[in-house]
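lol forgot to send this yesterday, sorry. C-alpha cells for the thing we talked abt
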C-alpha cells in the first residue's frame, strides 16, 4: 500500500504584540474629601432632626428634612463614582 503524503504545517507565528497605552489618570484628590463630607453632612442633618424633635435644621421642612439628609448621602454616593 502506498504511503500518504505528509503535509507540512506552517510554523505558528504569534500575532504582533499590542502596544500598551499609558493610562492618563487625572488628579482626583478632591473626590474622597467631598464624598466623606457629603456623607457626614447627610448623617448629621438626620441626627440633628431627630435629636431636636423636628425643630432643627429647618423647621418649615418638617419631615422633608429626612429627605434632605438622604439627598446629601445620595450625592456622596454619586461623587464616589468619580473615585479612581
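and heres what i got for the seq, position by position
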Amino acid at each position: 500500500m502506498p504511503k500518504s503524503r505528509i503535509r507540512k504545517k506552517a510554523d505558528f507565528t504569534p500575532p504582533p504584540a499590542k502596544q500598551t497605552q499609558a493610562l492618563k489618570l487625572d488628579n482626583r484628590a478632591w473626590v474622597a474629601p467631598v464624598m466623606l463630607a457629603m456623607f457626614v453632612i447627610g448623617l448629621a442633618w438626620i441626627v440633628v432632626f431627630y435629636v431636636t424633635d423636628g425643630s432643627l435644621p429647618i423647621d418649615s421642612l418638617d419631615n422633608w428634612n429626612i429627605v434632605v439628609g438622604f439627598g446629601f448621602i445620595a450625592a456622596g454616593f454619586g461623587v464616589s463614582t468619580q473615585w479612581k
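The mean pLDDT is 88. anyway ping me if u want another try
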